Amino acid sequence: MQFAQKLGAIIWKDFISEFRTKEMILSMCLFSFLVLIIFNFAFGLSLKFDRGMIAGILWVAFVFSGLTGLGRSFSMERDRGTLQGLILCPVSPWTIFLAKLIGVFLFTTVMEIITFFIFTILYNTTVLPFLVPLGLIIFLGTLGFTAVGTIFSAISATAKARSVLLSILFFPISVPVIIASVKATGIILSGNALQMVFPWLKILVAFDLIFLLVSYLTFAYILEE
Amino acid sequence: MNSEPYIEAKGLIKKFGHKTALRSVDICLQEGDSLALFGPNGAGKSTLIQVLCSLLQPTSGSVRIAGYEARRDREALHQIIGLIGHQTFLYPDLTAYENLKFYGAMYGVARLNDRIPEVLDLVGLSDYRNGVVQNFSRGMQQRLSIGRAIIHDPMIIFLDEPFTGLDQQGSADFMKLILQFRDQGKTVIMASHHLHLGLELCGRAAILKSGRIVYLQDVAHIPHSDFKQIYSQKVGENALHLKVA
Questions:
Q1: Which residues of A touch B79 (CB under 8 A)?
Q2: Which CATH superfamily is domain B1-80+155-162+180-245 in?
């Protein structure tokens, strides 16, 4: 009960803060919109026939835009001097991690829904028949890269060149989840059988579980430093 | 009275890279004691308070507070302490009420809706409950920071230069509050440059120099008029520039 109350309090606080400033969601949406527009102009009509490439563009928009939000997750707490206040509360590091992850995940999901809507218009893609499998892939992929991003955001928050450090740490580790997400999305958009996606889904589930476990085991030490 | 110390720090050493901020510091306080920590800038006062609060882990040594091992029982320990420091730990985009609501929820405060107006009244911010913190003056933020630190009615209060930003009235109100804490049997540890205030508000006084406690005495045994001189002798500098209330 206490765990849920504290978790909810951190998420509530982040949402109120974001609702008032709109710093994170605006920058993420603008970035993803820009990515979609640039690729649309660069590749033109040829994209219509290459579903794999379309899936790649979609995930470039998701991941890079998500990264701008991920970077702010802990750095804002550091910059405002509130991270120590948060650590001083009688709350486990895991609760702080989970609350931050849920917050970033929800903000990223909002950005992805908006991006997805624009994507279907710009790339003339019919997604209605694949909405459920696509939703599942996006959920697992987003959970994977936001989990990695949240943990590295905490590590890099104290660094001077924090955005550079976050990118250096984030991309090599999140390659499996990005590749699996792109491949699975491409298969679904191409109208292939659902069974073909299962191997990629297994990778996504395994990646998510591993990173949640790693975060659970290590976050206390990260926060301590 | 329980003979086991309420706050016990043994052989505290804290290093930041090559710099040693604390050198084998020992502290032993009983419940309800109050300690004023004095010392020049960089003496290690803030570091000591952060280590005692378990915001920083000591390089070596141990801290035991109210029977809790600082490192092992961090959550339980944080439930009974409040810290008022240089930083306010307030969220600038949230209102005064929302900040207290957040921290109150984090501490699991019972009847929070009743407690928040009580605390706002105590720190003189009842009229500003819906004001966004970033629009507050430094003094108002410090008042709210006091409210944040006592929202859960902690048994131990750490004060690190708590008068920063407070105007005369704010300082006077806060002094009364600290004396109230003492009367309620709360344990208070205060780091300050205000020699006079420290001696007035605390039962014991310690002087830190280069990470070591070089002087520790009951305030009752210190002739207040001589303390500036004692301080100068201990830290090896002219104390005349120090704030004397």
A1: 90
A2: P-loop containing nucleotide triphosphate hydrolases (3.40.50.300)
